[in-house]
Specification:
mainly alpha; Rhopdopsin 7-helix transmembrane proteins; transmembrane; olfaction; transducer
Length: about 300
């Protein structure tokens, strides 16, 4: 590094470099952020208040909504404004972002296993997937996700960021920080591959067994019902992993900061925005629970009149 001075303060430019689109991007991202918070909080509230949704699958959906809400809270406020931020604050943001992002992947893998158990042992499903087991799986997802994130933070922030005090990105992810350190970039690429590909393989294994079991069902109606219960989860998995792989597993170069910033928005905003919409529109139980919850909160939906004997 020669006589360079180690940097301890970063300037985070966010979308300030897009001067022509700055106002539009601010409004769109702010509106998206409020929508994400409202949708995920509504889903968590509906699951908590509706006894019909006190099942293993909705338990994990509630955990996924909470984790995605935390992910957006960590990243989006920094996306809206340019900030001067210290190195410890930068490390903290990166730690929580990577931890929650990894946790989302592992929760989706757990949800696929829950789907498999529901199809494989429908009569013993609630006996096998007890609240204690679900809680242990959820805690394991959080622990593994944040442990991997901690390993990355320790590796990255032991470096000296000489003369790299301006970051042309909206969050302190590794791409803008480490574009000049190829060995570390390779290590972080392997981390992304392990989290994304590893959890995706677990999901695919569960669904291979689900397809094998469903195809053995004698009733066409039963097969359709079994597949339809998995449609919401499969849609969310496709959205999540499609965007994430495009953002994090594609090759990076030092001249693609603006491109990386715009493509990363798809993962940071669209994924948590589309997930609650998918689970709400494709799930009648969730629609009923949301309607009842909103009705109890704001008094819009009147109580159904009792039928006369």
């Amino acid at each position: 590094m020669g006589n360079h001075t180690a940097v301890s303060i970063f300037t985070l430019w966010g979308f300030s470099s897009f001067s022509d689109l700055q106002s539009l991007l601010f409004v769109v991202i702010l509106f998206s952020h409020m929508t994400i918070l409202t949708a995920n909080v509504s889903i968590m509230g509906a699951i908590k208040l509706s006894h019909n949704l006190h099942t293993p699958m909705y338990f994990f959906l509630c955990g996924l909504s909470f984790s995605e809400t935390c992910t957006t809270v960590v990243v989006i406020p920094h996306m809206l404004v340019g900030l001067t931020i210290s190195l410890p604050e930068c490390a903290t943001q990166m730690f929580f972002f990577l931890g929650f992002a990894s946790n989302n992947c592992f929760i989706m893998a757990a949800m696929s296993y829950v789907r498999y158990m529901a199809v494989h042992n429908p009569l013993q499903y609630h006996t096998l997937m007890t609240r204690k087991i679900c809680l242990q799986m959820m805690m394991a997802s959080w622990m593994v996700g944040f442990l991997l994130s901690l390993c990355i933070i320790v590796t990255v922030f032991n470096l000296s960021f000489c003369d790299l005090n301006t970051i042309w990105h909206y969050s302190h992810q590794w791409s803008p920080l480490l574009v000049i350190t190829l060995p570390i970039m390779k290590g972080l690429f392997l981390y992304s591959a392990c989290v994304l590909v590893g959890s995706f393989i677990l999901i695919m294994i569960s669904y291979v067994f689900i397809v094998f079991i469903v195809t053995k069902m004698p009733s066409a109606k039963g097969r359709f019902k079994a597949f339809s219960t998995c449609s919401s989860h499969l849609t969310v998995v496709s959205i999540h992993y499609g965007f994430a792989c495009f953002v994090y597993l594609r090759p990076k170069n030092s001249n693609s900061f603006h491109e990386d910033m715009l493509t990363a928005v798809t993962y940071t905003i669209l994924t948590p925005l589309l997930n609650p919409i998918v689970y709400s529109l494709r799930n009648k139980e969730m629609q009923i629970a949301l309607r009842e919850t909103l009705g109890n909160v704001i008094g819009v939906f009147p109580q159904k009149a009792k039928k006369e004997p």
